[in-house]
Amino acid sequence: MSHWKEFTKGLWERNPQLVVGVALCTTLATSTSLSNALWMTIAAICTLTGTGLIVSLLGRIMQPRVRLPIIMAVSVTLVTAVGFVIRAYQPEAYRSLGIYLPLIAVNCIILNRADQFARNNGVTAALLDGLGMGIGFGITLAVLAIVREFLGANAFFGRTVIPGFDQPRVMLLAPGAFIILGLMLWGMNSIRARGRKK
Amino acid sequence: MRDSVGSAALVIAVISVCAVIIVQTHTLSEKVIVRRADEQRTRGLTQTLPGFTVGPAKKSAFGDFLYWEGLKKIDEKTTVRGFAFIARWKGPAGHRDVLVGIDEQGAVLGFSAEGSDGTSDWTDPLGGTAGGYFLLSRDIPVSTARDRGGVFLNRYDPSAPALEAMALMMSVNDGFSRLSREPGIPTPGTQGAAR
């Protein structure tokens, strides 16, 4: 597979949330605002690419029985380091993301990409795969966050969009997230089904 | 056997490097985290005790909470004291910390949001809308708020600020009850809480 395809598959063809169906819990919880989505995406990209890079380097010398502990150690370390940096320079974002930031370490995308892809591929491919998956994850999260922030808080990046608009606040709560994510999954499946028919 | 030794060595090496990275990142970020926390605390104290010269944090003789004492010179002969403390409103998903300033009679001089934890939907920082909505859906007995602080806020009022104010009052009254047991600190009244 070409490097370009390695990169783009996470954006559409193998999008983590809309196609593979992983990281949905994080997506639902941290899509209350675009700011949250942005910082969660940055943290996920750093962890995905970092874990992919290291696992790719260690891939050939890792015995199957120590694979999971090593992948976990690497992802936990990267998430912790990213968490310290976000806490220091973006304390509001750190507080908003709450427990979901450290939970990236055990996110299915990280384990899936490190164990299934990075371990068996070269450094460049692993880096591009991590970057593409991270950006794909971020795009879905951002779209969901834009819709929820607008409908639930009448805001875009924390700024009021339509003064006087009485927004349905339920969109900021879990039911709103489920409804919008469900619509996005429906749309994605419809487009993919149409593509297959052609 | 050889494989086991190699695997163990690899795991130890990876974990050692990970530990060094975590320690180094923590060391580098800790200074910034502490500095920002100090700045936020100073801003909060300025807001909660306006015009007061606030001293260093003091530890309560009972329990485990901090408070600050401030002095304000009214004229040549009169100096008034003010106190600031952190009141915590606990929700099922986390808590909100509010820095509250009171005078010697217990009248509230100012509030400042200190922070919150828990999921962002449920305990987002003060001023957010989701937190207000969450409070709306909770069964908060009005009588409790009234008994504890002489405060009555319509729990069916859909406006988030009113509901947040109610949460604040509950926090404040919790803080009042703790402060009133502190030796040397006057028992706060409730007239200030209704402001």
Report on this structure.
The complex is a heterodimer of chains A (198) and B (195). With 198 residues, chain A is mainly alpha-helical. Chain A has helices at 3-8, 16-20, 24-30, 34-58, 64-89, 91-97, 108-117, 123-153, 174-197; strands at residues 155-156, 159-160. Chain A has a two-stranded antiparallel sheet. In chain A, a hairpin with a 2-residue loop joins strand 1 and strand 2 (159-160). By secondary structure, chain B is α+β, with helices and mostly antiparallel strands. Chain B has five helices and six strands. In chain B, strands 1, 2, 3, 4, 5 and 6 form a six-stranded antiparallel sheet that branches. In chain B, strand 5 and strand 6 form a beta hairpin. The relative contact order of chain B is 0.12. The model of chain B is unreliable at 119-195 (pLDDT under 50).
Write the topology of this structure.
The complex is a heterodimer of chains A (198) and B (195).
Chain A: H1 3-8, H2 16-20, H3 24-30, H4 34-58, H5 64-89, H6 91-97, H7 108-117, H8 123-153, E1 155-156, E2 159-160, H9 174-197
Antiparallel strand pairs in A: 1-2
Helix pairs in contact in A: 4-5, 4-6, 4-7, 4-8, 5-6, 5-7, 7-8, 8-9
Chain B: H1 2-48, E1 53-54, E2 58-59, E3 66-73, E4 79-91, E5 94-103, E6 108-116, H2 120-123, H3 129-137, H4 142-149, H5 160-179
Antiparallel strand pairs in B: 1-3, 2-3, 3-4, 4-5, 5-6
